[in-house]
Amino acid sequence: MAYRPERAKEALPGDFGPIGDLYQELSQFPSVVYASVGVGFAAFGGAECLPLYTEWCQPDLGRHQKLQFSRQYILHHDGTAVVPVTPVGVPVEIRDQLLIRMSPTGMRKAVLTHHLEMGQKQEVLEALWSPDDKGIVFVGWWHEPFRLGLNACSNRRSALFLLDPSGSSCELLSSDSQAISSPRLSPDRTHLVYLEGPVFGPHRQCLKLQMLSWQTKLTSTVVDIVRTATTGFFGIYSGALPLHCWAGDNHRVLLSTPQRSRKELLVVDTKLGSVKCITAGTPEGSWTLLGIQQDLLVMSCSSPNCPPSLVVGVLPPAGSELELQWTSVEKASVLPDTEWKTLTVHPTVTVEGNHDAGQAFEALLLSPQESKRGENIFPLVVSPHGGPHAVFDACWCPKMACLCQLGFAVLMVNYRGSLGFGQASIESLISHVGVQDVEDTQLAVELALQMEPLDPDRIALLGGSHGGFVCCHLIGRYPEMYKACAVRSPVINMATLLGTSDIPDWRYAVLGLPYCFERIPTKEDLAAMLLCSPIIHAAKVRTPLLICVGAKDRRVSPYQAMEYYRVLRAREIPVKLLWYPEENHAISGVEAGAAVFLNCAQWMIHHLSKESADAESQQAAKTSEV
Prior knowledge:
Helix content is about 20%, strand content about 35%. It is of the alpha+beta class. Strands 1-31-30-29-28-26-27-25-24 form a nine-stranded mixed sheet, sandwiched between helices. Helix 5 (about 435-450) crosses helix 6 (about 465-475). It is globular and about 75 Å long.
């Protein structure tokens, strides 16, 4: 008979019983995504009052969409600190809003709106007014001879331009052979900072912080690419610069970026080129700068066991930044009965000729508290991140917290090649993908089993995209160790994926091969791609596998999953394929995303149960006899 994938059903969290109820509860914590401070006004007693406008988002599982809403506050500022914070009015829902910009006075607000059909997305343009208000500074990308994917790719050829609104001229302001992002103008409108990195190669890399003098149009490097950390600073990565990042002194720039497995707040002195971390050692693992205006910092902070909180603080003078004091605006509480820690993993063996691969990497462990659970050991869910050049920073993730509340420990692995560990770590994975990332994940699991109260007979894998690639490698290489596996949009066969993805250059980059638009793959290229793909280990797989794919995925063709599914079904391995007709690579729709997680959780719970383990052991014995 023919095997067909199961079309994913439209399911609500309530359809999944207690698991769905827990997921719905933990998804209700909103995240702040935008903040703007208005012009202050005098208050009684000499204090200054500053209006704070914020925007938040959270999934609305009842309406099957993301809910956006605004909240406003009055901050009372005594000159050195924010004393009390007063909420103003009630939250207001935001609809059909693409972009918001406050006027320089803070008294007016410009809103760009557009009606989008379900599933459509909009790029937000990187543009700002020139210092004299006579032109527009913007980032432009080259799209010839054909377009390559931009999402999660900071390595596309681009440049800064100055456009005359009349259309009479368009002046190049930066190099035209690099990848440019995040132009930000100083308050005195004399200097422009932006991020710059190389074109092609790893899709996300360590970046330079460049500064352009508007008067001379000369560019200098403020912070260079960091290959390996020598002073505790691990480099700057994409997305680091918020819309407002300059201090009022016009020479300090503030940003938040991964530093190993934490997201930290850094202050850069553009005159000295020095970098200082302000948040190192704090209980929160992730600090996201929403902006700094009038030296008032607005930040979101969270950790794996604590939802996002909104805090503000007044930036001290240069040299005294570590004295910064935070005032809570919206505070979240730590999740009860859960704890997290960072495990440092030291590779014992490095790949021959890979001189940058010897450095340590990290994994985040989120687990139930032993004494309160009354259990001796916990089942473990292992999750390598996607990318491959991405990172798990120690932030709030409802799905991981939900697994922990269900009684699992969760190990999130930042294998070598992850962001936040320096450029040398990123480059160490090149030519070793499918080997180093897989061995690192396995090494992290073995270390966790040695150090923590975990059950070695109840281990599951969970990963998406390249994380799914690593998971599928692991169930082929260690078929007896992993009792369940659930993946989303996995890369299965790099050779057959080459002509169907919006990022064909990635296949060459991870093999250490140069890419050009007209390149035709050789038989050696295709052989190398196949040999580092999970499908070559399919004959050894015994682990029950759930695969979730979006039919409109342009990055990783869903037929990759179909290829793997058919092979495993033919070998009578427990495998299930869920097909989401309207979803893309991330399967990020509110309803579909919830359904994917809940199906994965149920799959792992079922196959890690004792009854299921006994039945699968009998089936494995029968298969080996045949």
